[in-house]
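Lab notes, practical 5.
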Amino acid sequence: MEKVQKNHGFVLRASVCLLALAALTLLGSTASAGNGDDREVTVMTRNVYFGASLQPVIESESALEMLFAVAAVWDAVHDTDFPDRAEALADEIADAMPLLIGLQEAALWRIQSPGDILSGGTTPAEDVVYDFTAILLDALEDRGLSYEVIVTQDDADFELPSITGDDVRFTDRDVILARSDLETSELKIEGTDAAHFENLAYVPLAGSMIPILRGWVAADVKIRGKQFRFLNTHLEDDPFPAAQEAQAEELLDGPVADVDIPVLLVGDLNSDAFGAGTDSYDILLDGGFEDAWTTVYPLVDGLTFGHDEDLLNEDPGMTERIDFVLYLGNFEVEAADVVGEEDGDQSPGGLWPSDHAGLWATLPIPSDLKR
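Output from the prediction step:
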């Protein structure tokens, strides 16, 4: 049932006593993330990280500098070793056993070797080196877990030449995974949808101003007769606040307004919950959403971003809370946890699973679930 779209600072921290923090942490780590209740759903959001920062390419000031920058980015993608990181990500999923997972930055990296761009060729690179979604699904299958892609959307898609002579192609993807081992009474996907935002940021690339394509993916879900929409997105980065905030408004006016059922919205909003930066988080709260994390832990930061680009930092160093499970409707929230941010969460090769932490939340569904 997979649907594919191919279109292309200041952190406020509450001071609480160590005993209270320990108690809250224990609650979060021991609360069930399973789905034994007939009307309970565990969902996860996970930005899995492209594997490198693309800024050196975007900031290149000459064609030659860009050729070297592309090679450096490609080397970094190899060094951050997604097959290794997928082992840690799969362990996170095995521990939480979410019914639904929203993935951001589920990259597809392809090459053409030798490339043809510099000689004026137009053949796109199709040799797949890393398909992050497929690699993660394989790691889950190795653990005996059954997940499938429900909807995926290709967003930004760039191909550039490298000083090595290869052409390197990067495709950003938003993906929803769902458990595939359940009866339809326990989890039924009734439909999917996806779209790109109309409001986009533009960056200079290879002598032109290029739009950074972003969007959202959604699945309409029924569990034991109770229906809701599961919506996954990755908003524009905070250096482009106008585009990002307009995208948040688009969510409210589009995939949220288009249905009259409750909505679970997960994703990397790139908008800090503590007010340092953009207003997108507040726009969504003003639109009726509530934050699952603060419902469970009103006094705990729950930071989700801050690992180094090479994923080798010894200390977690999380600085922002920009990854969320938000809900619109009379859901209850039983438990939530941030994952991938503590010592011991690293991959077998010693890498952090991503530059982001992940977040799961368990929401018992009331018998009178409504918008």
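Observations recorded by the TA: The first strand starts at residue 3 and ends at 5. The CA atoms of residues 164 and 209 lie 25 Å apart.
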